[in-house]
């Protein structure tokens, strides 16, 4: 007894490609920064013991990675939402 969707959804392959490319770019950015964290731990471990205020570099860098992931997710969501709204307004969807 399905009545179908309330609106017509048309595929927009161009927007999907842009979103995928943005996701890959952000993933590479995060991976490079995370690789720096791992490389410091492997090759120059004493650096992680350096004090930064009341904390050490390892804790600050680790929390920085978590915050960076959240910030990148918010940026990705905002860019994709704006692109979808722009596509809807221009009538290309």
Task: Describe the secondary structure blueprint for this structure.
Elements (H helix, E strand, L loop, with lengths): L12 H31 L7 E2 L2 E2 H34 L3
Antiparallel strand pairs: 1-2
Organism: Candidatus Desulfosporosinus infrequens
Keywords: Membrane, Transmembrane, Transmembrane helix
InterPro entries: DUF485
Task: Describe the structure in brief.
The chain is mainly alpha-helical and 93 residues long. The protein is built from two helices and two strands; from the N terminus they run αββα.
Describe it for me?
The structure is a single chain. The chain is mainly α and 93 residues long. It has one domain (13-92). Helix content is 70%, strand content 4%. It has two helices and two strands; from the N terminus they run αββα. Helix 1 (13-43) packs antiparallel against helix 2. The longest helix has 34 residues, at 57-90. 0% of the residues are buried. Pfam families: DUF485.
**Mean pLDDT level:** 88
Q: Write down the Rg.
A: 21 Å
Overall, the morphology is elongated
The largest β sheet comes out as: 2 strands, antiparallel
Q: Widest sheet: strand order? A: 1-2
Could you list some keywords that capture this structure?
2 helices, 2 strands, membrane, mainly alpha, 93 residues
């Amino acid at each position: 007894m399905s009545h179908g969707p309330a609106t017509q959804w048309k595929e927009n392959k161009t927007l999907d490609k842009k979103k995928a490319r943005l996701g890959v770019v952000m993933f590479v950015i995060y991976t490079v920064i995370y690789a720096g964290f791992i490389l410091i731990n492997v090759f120059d471990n004493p650096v992680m013991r350096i004090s930064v205020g009341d904390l050490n570099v390892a804790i600050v860098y680790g929390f920085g990675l978590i915050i960076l992931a959240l910030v990148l997710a918010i940026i990705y969501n905002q860019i994709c939402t704006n692109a979808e709204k722009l596509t809807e307004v221009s009538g290309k969807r």
